[in-house]
Amino acid sequence: MANSPDLSLVFTLVFAALLVLGLLAKFYLASRQIRHVAAHRDQVPAAFAATISLQAHQKAADYTVAKARFGMLQTAFGAALLLAWTLLGGIDALNQALMNSGLAAYGSLVPQLALLAAFGLISGALDLPFTLYSTFRIEERFGFNKMTFRLWLADLVKSTLVGLVIGLPIVALILWLMGSAGSLWWLWAWAVWMGFNLLVLVLYPTVIAPLFNKFKPLDDEALKARVTALMQRCGFAAKGLFVMDGSKRSAHANAYFTGFGAAKRVVFYDTLLNQLSPGEVDAVLAHELGHFKHKHILKRIVSMFAMSLAGFALLGWLSSQTWFYTGLGVRPSLAGANDALALLLFMLVVPLFSFFVSPLLAWFSRKHEFEADAYAVSKTDGKDLQSALLKLYQDNASTLTPDPVFVKFYYTHPPASERLSRMTPLLPTAHGASA
Ligand SMILES: [Zn+2]
Fold first, then answer.
1. How confident is the model at residue 410, as a pLDDT?
2. How far is the CA of 189 from the centre of ligand 1 (A)?
3. What is the pTM assigned to this prediction?
């Protein structure tokens, strides 16, 4: 393994600088958002004055501010925790304890898997107070939470088990490749990881999602006929239309389109069907179909493939550099395997870098939303899409007056005002046709 104390120090400094820079940027953005939303709290923007009440506008402002404040607390805690795991020696201590435990007698794979599992469980446990507060304080206060503590607990147990059952074998396979597939292990590991992702995409709608929600076929015949006609008009085979009991957890509404080829299915949250008229449901579905027509899903998968190939190649190189470990406060084993350590440190460090490219990804996502909106307007009544979006933004208490810089950084969906104003010229009435 290449060793250099100087590189180790340089890497520590880069890591610390990025951590501080990221923290400052996140705090700056959140405080901008809070100030901007609070400053516009007392007046509904003119374009929405006729459709949104002052009360709804203020609820959205308070919800947005509450979430942003809580997000700042979470960000600060996350940064402190990252420091504790790395430079302050948390991972090193955990790793040494496992290496020196009886587990080492079962070969090098077992203590390595134990390290990743222990890390996952500990960080999951430390995250629990935040999830609890967010669900039972913030979401509850604004009337969105529909979960009982019992259901929350059942979800936690189930998702932990699903994570272990699915995660451990794939991680074991990747660790094994790292240890035995030679210097090109990262290429094999990437192929395995991609295969795994595709498998999850296929299994999620049919095997994983039903563990958490009930899906029943859409039985409203009128709506079914309408939706089927829309799908035919857009050239999609209506394979399965389902209603999901989203209302058992949250009042937030949604619809999505999942699966590949013959396994494609449309899923409506029951909350969406309760809040929207049939025409509006049609428009929302047309928007989702627009994502497929414009190949957004495919583009997302292909870019994920490319980014993870670059990631694995980088990991392949970093895992053989001693400074990568020592620079992050970890003593690599000189004789044994350090693969789990490398994976873990890599997963912790990558977000520090990727945070700074997130505006680019968010920009692409917003561009795709505009394209899907335009498609929906061309296939359904654009007025329906406008009123559906307005209802959804209002029901989800999304603010109409977000800070523009915050939007550029974080928003994967454009603010309501931008979506509606982009759509207006596309509507037939805007061209002078009689209303
Ligand atoms: Zn969309």
1. 94
2. 32
3. 0.88
